[in-house]
């Protein structure tokens, strides 16, 4: 592992006026969780909820989409936010594709959601690698259908001052926080624009808006991702693609360790809000909204 | 009426070193629509929607509040946005108080919502007058219960350059767009903080964020309202009061006249989003979100 | 004085449907410091600085204006920032008009600058009173010439939460921080636009950009003043009037009391920067810039 | 050249689970313009400007630094902005180091400034290559002294929509607009912090603040550069290093072709303002300021 890390930076080999810049990387194969698929059983999805009566005044506010015929893709599925996005989308009846560098870590989640009747596949994918993302989209489309909702939820960050930050770490953070968002959002938009529908949600944080001490790597990537969100929204909203940027100004709970006295956002509530963005009717779309717990300071997070 | 207008500015009477600054105003009595109340009949509210089964995976995402036992107050109810807020809140089962300088214009709306089974009262109120707002809150509380959700939806604007703007118009715009918001929000917060729950929604527009040519009066008031929203959120979120600022970067449809080819936000979708803010669980509250139609330019509106 | 304070809020007298809103105010007569004028002596202004040689490469960067033939007006002259603006403008050779509610407090400053050879008059003026400002502009123009540079430096603030803020204090803060800025800037712009030249500088603070806890009154006024700056810049820059907004994110030193260990901005450096804005050539004007000391936290002030 | 372009993207070679990512680059040797140095003659710098008399009231506003003993480094020297920065700094008497990928294009400028008595060297450097920047700083320090003022003025942009943007172009734009700024600013800060003085100026544009249609590549890099500026300012201001971000919301004149009727910022005025930032006393530093011509629309540029 130490050997691997020593190989993981950019290197340069110069011969006369020509240099070769290179780094090694581990390929992340795009493949679904077939093993788990075999174990999947058809489940009764509980007593169906009867539709609201036609006479009900609430009828007008039901979502215009029936999400239960749709496919969602989450890129960057970690404990907390990513896991709860998966649960929320599956709960609505969507087919759900989960992508992560390490798909094996998603086994338990896939089992859980499949057991509850969800149609959920996990895929290995390196979001910063254009070919890996292209393969992901093609595979998901073939196996679950073209995604109607794509969420970019990758975040990479290790704190440090500008003076202490090394170039490979700076580049790598940007690749995770911003370049991957571009590659995924572009692939999604290219697929959605001809269809004239779909939602692309990019996930930001405090550092999307404020460059604080010790947050260089995160802020550079997150500012860039916000720029992408602004440009893409202006470009593809008119084609019917809803691009939105969510700003999570909070710690997100990903375990129960800190529960006592520590302020954290519940990821299932964030996930519900992201799902709500997907369901917004197009005459009143939101391009940006922020989230933090009620008892949290404003703009003091990562 | 012309006489009235000529009286409606601030005046100054000086005697030696002391000046008296004064203006005349018409009092707006706070009283509900009793006439209509007498006509109201108990209505069957349609077949009730059965609650989702406990086994349903969607159960976790149902709102934590049962809005049907709550009271909403909308200050500034005009065709379009205000009317649809009323319809949305009534549709959820909330008791709804509507306040407007001219409550009589709300008669048809009250009749409509009452006929559909809603418990809706309209009140005359001058939001820029502290005493009028205090009377409003007291009356609403007595008649419908203390409000759980208060929306400030007053907006006053006539375009004009800085050079052409007269001081009384400048002051009056600010009083409607900002002072009234302060008076209403403060009264709401004073009532909600001891109870530890409630939502206060302030309504902004493009001019909340950008001071564009010819938008002086609107921008000065809307910037100020946004300042209020930021301060109040920081102060009362920790008491469990959700303060949020919505930025409507769009024309809002208030009739069918411009429908063909003209881009407008559907007010019922805005209203649904405002209701959604009220229902956000407190571990992931939003302080600001924007709205515009899919086919609209960004930040080019009032 | 206590009597006076008790009179100083807005009052309301209602007769049937008509209300009279009124408050008392002390008139601030606009008159210059004639007494001091009599004592003024013609002073030798020291050895004149020879102009840079035509061959000097620095010649191209000399200001395009010769400020020494110009007139400056500062509205809101207090110890610290206002005093140093006066010193800076006088040092450049400008004729300087100082306006304050209480012109007598400016006696020593006028004496000091006059003794150094400056042509400096102090005027009483209530910036929130349109007639007082009109009289001020007329008097200054008659006595010192039409102003080429007008700085609005009034700031009024007493901290407090939204819940604790009374309406008269809210209104009065806004009148000082924003309404006065509008009245002064409009009067200045109306005078400058026909001449096609001039600078109007509006003074903001941390609370111009962020609404922090306990800063309600300041933030509402300062947000509004910033809106005014944005609108007015877009409207009158094309006429050759430079409108700029300076954001002082710092405590400004106004005495030597806190000097040890306490971080403050030197007002003479702020004043020099404001003068620099006035001298900017019009192909590269600045609309907003911020200031704070090197050893200060960002965005943590009033 | 076509061959070269075809080589210039990132490539990937996979063997089993390991991939090699690589691209070719041309090395940019860091060397000064020695040829021109030989031709340089000692020049009389014109009649020196006598210092302002000690009795002059303007004395207090003279810069606290004597720039004529200092060294400036400009990274990214193109016609227009970069050239005029060089002229401005040289005019103040600073030693000036110019860095560009193609130093030969700076020959005429170096000749011009040397003929006027300046001590100016041009260096080839690839700002996106850490080793090239390290060599540049070392060479400049050895030949002209450690820089007191470093300006990052590289900008790379070709317009295009998100859908049409290829990954190598996206990465390359970011490397020029943001990564290079990080490498240069970090190298400068590492040199300046131990000395406790110096200025680092990063150059932004409209796209630093707004992500507009067709401006993806510029906006992602410029947003990131602004994040860097915010973080670095908070980190090194307390060490006495002035980091500032200038936002040029304008076309900058780099030739006389468009002069008639076309609105452009004069680069010599921008350069003068940048020099002014370097001279700001540290009790009132600016972190960000914007520039545009008087007759230009706000926020409509690149």
From TrEMBL, chains A, B, C, D:
Region feature Disordered, mapped onto this chain: 33-61
Q: What InterPro entries does UniProt report for this protein, alphabetically? A: NAD(P)-bd_dom_sf (IPR036291), SDR_fam (IPR002347)
**So which domain of life are we looking at?**
Bacteria
| Alphabetical list of PANTHER family matching this protein | OXIDOREDUCTASE, SHORT CHAIN DEHYDROGENASE/REDUCTASE FAMILY (AFU_ORTHOLOGUE AFUA_5G14000), OXIDOREDUCTASE, SHORT CHAIN DEHYDROGENASE_REDUCTASE FAMILY (AFU_ORTHOLOGUE AFUA_5G14000)
Q: What is this protein called?
A: SDR family NAD(P)-dependent oxidoreductase
Q: Which organism is it from?
A: Massilia frigida
